[in-house]
Amino acid sequence: MANAVALYTLLLAAVVLTCHCDDESKLQVVYMGDRPQDDASTHHSMLQSVLGSASSAKDSLVHSYGKSFNGFAAKLSEEEAAAIAEMEGVISVFPNRKLNLHTTRSWDFMGFSRGVLEQGQEGNIIVGLIDTGAWPEHPSFNDTGYGPPPPKWKGTCQTKNFTCNNKLIGARYYNSDDDYDDGDIPSPRDTIGHGTHTASTAAGNELAGTSFLGLAEGVARGGVPNARIAVYKVCWAGGFCGDADILKAFDDAIADGVDVLSVSLGYTGISDYFEDSIAIGSFHAMRNGILTSC
Ligand SMILES: *[C@@H]1O[C@H](CO)[C@@H](O)[C@H](O)[C@H]1NC(C)=O
Ligand SMILES: *[C@@H]1O[C@H](CO)[C@@H](O)[C@H](O)[C@H]1NC(C)=O
């Protein structure tokens, strides 16, 4: 029994000893604010007062910031970092985290690289766009290789100066104020390009050799390039989109059988949810299992 207690005490001591080793030094940033008043020697003496010796302070210090703002980076244990955080002039102490590159290749970045979904799966997805309509002759909406729309599709194509196909399967337009600008066409046809852009970004075909005036040439494509598209034109050349029309578009799109709604428009201010056509429309879309991205 006495032996067991002695062994237990020994193990406990060993655990206490190893605990110290678990607390390895990690690179920490010590931020000290705006003024580049302090130099490396101040940072060094701060470290020395916590670490106990000049040589361990020298080993610990990785960067001194002092040209444009004040602070330093040093290898510290949790306790040492906490002690530094208490020192005068220290604003924050935080670990050296690893950041990621951001990108202009958004679909790849989000994991929607080319061919992630099978063509058959994708072909059954219907993406609805509440926007300025679309330019139906645009090659992003060419239906070569597409079969008929999936049977769940219950929408329609208002063919006033507009032709649907097996890619661009639905089109409606709304202008309850009868308020047309010069250049507007009373049709789902997009006269300003916004809806053609958002529709092709969400679900347009892959188009090789696309560029911006010769710059950044490559393949332009939607996130789901084989999906079907239905456009609901509620915005007009004057740049306005009315609540009453937006709600009618949601009401139709949900009943038509879209799987996803993309809505790239909004108020300039903040409105109450119960007086906000996008909040009301997207709430009911989500209740019907339709992912709505605004
Ligand atoms: C659609 O694409 C096919 C294949 O590239 C092409 O032959 C056809 O002319 C295109 N249709 C339209 C309407 O541009
Ligand atoms: C449809 O609109 C386009 C663009 O304004 C125009 O060129 C074309 O003639 C119109 N087609 C019809 C049938 O109205």
Automatic annotation (TrEMBL):
Residues 124-291 form the Peptidase S8/S53 domain. This is Cucumisin-like. One of its GO terms (molecular function) is serine-type peptidase activity. Residues 1-21 form the signal peptide. Keywords: Hydrolase, Protease, Serine protease, Signal. GO terms for biological process: proteolysis. SUPFAM superfamilies: Subtilisin-like. Belongs to the peptidase S8 family. Residues 29-102 form the Inhibitor I9 domain. The keyword Hydrolase applies. It comes from the Eukaryota. Pfam families: Inhibitor_I9, Peptidase_S8.
